[in-house]
Amino acid sequence: MTEKTMQDLIMDRIARPGWVSTRGILMDPSGQLAPEHHQAVENAMKDLARRGLVSLWKLFIKDQTIEMMAASRPDLNLAEELEQRGAWATAVRYELGE
User: Which residues have C-beta within 8 Å of that of residue 40, sequence separation ≥ 6?
Assistant: First the structure.
């Protein structure tokens, strides 16, 4: 998958429900793909964030030590969204440069 294709996929996925994780882009719910695949998606998300097209979040899966990056529409507060839904993860805003 090319960088441009990943960015297009990210933008398509955040249209509804408003956000997507790296695993969602890779269709890798168990996290079994090699780390470089996840890093490529994170890099695409970061590029979109630099251009102001998405907001970045770190997701922390409840009751596990797993974390992953997510991108959302800039107008969506993912932390509040997940809390209201009683979701499987919590989100913390991720700022570029971390």
Answer: 1, 3, 6
pTM over 0.85: no
Return phi, psi of residue 97, to 5°.
100, -10
Domain-wise residue ranges, the chain:
3-94
DSSP string, 19-68: EEEHHHHHT-TT--S-HHHHHHHHHHHHHHHHTTS-EEEEEEETTSS-EE
pLDDT single digits (tens) 22-35: 877 777 566 666 77
Question: Domain 3-94 carries which CATH code?
Answer: 1.10.10.10
Residue 15, both tokens: 């249209």
Q: Which residues contact 15 (CB under 8 A, 6 or more apart)?
A: 73
